[in-house]
Amino acid sequence: MVSDDERSERLTALNELIEIIRPAVQADGGDLMLVSADVTEGVVEVMLQGACSSCAVSSSTLQAGIDRILKDRLPWVTEVKGGVDESVDLELSASMGRGGYVPKD
Fold it and tell me: Which domains does the chain have, with CATH numbers?
């Protein structure tokens, strides 16, 4: 059982860690958004946005980067779910930063 105080501490620590990670994603024209967090079960859902929607390595960023960091620094995190917001126009996404990827014809 997770107390209300511990629940609050976990959520605060998660939000602080997301804010530490975000500038690295933003440097490539993307962004990282916390979608949901079940601090009792340890399941966190995040979404990559912006240039990440057209970046070929977005899934690697989620799995090798964000997943690993959250699990390493927050021992209560058991699963990190993630996705990429693909609603951004491909040309706009490519113009947002170095991470933009536009496939060639």
Answer: 4-84 (3.30.300.130)
Distance between CA atoms of residues 46 and 16, nearest Å: 14
Indicate the range of 36-40, 41-45, 52-56, 91-95 predicted with least confidence.
Answer: 91-95
**pTM confidence score:** 0.75
Buried b (16+ CB within 10 A) or exposed e, 77-99: beebebebeeebeeeebbebbeb
CB 30 within 8 A of CB 99: yes
pLDDT tens by residue, 3-46: 999 999 999 999 999 999 888 888 877 888 899 999 999 999 99
User: Which residues, 6+ apart, have CB-to-CB distance to 8 below 8 Å?
Assistant: none
Inter-residue contact 99 to 55 (CB < 8 Å): yes
The bridge status of strand 30-38 relative to strand 43-50 is antiparallel
Rounded to an integer, what distance in angstroms lies between the CA atom of residue 103 and that of residue 105?
7
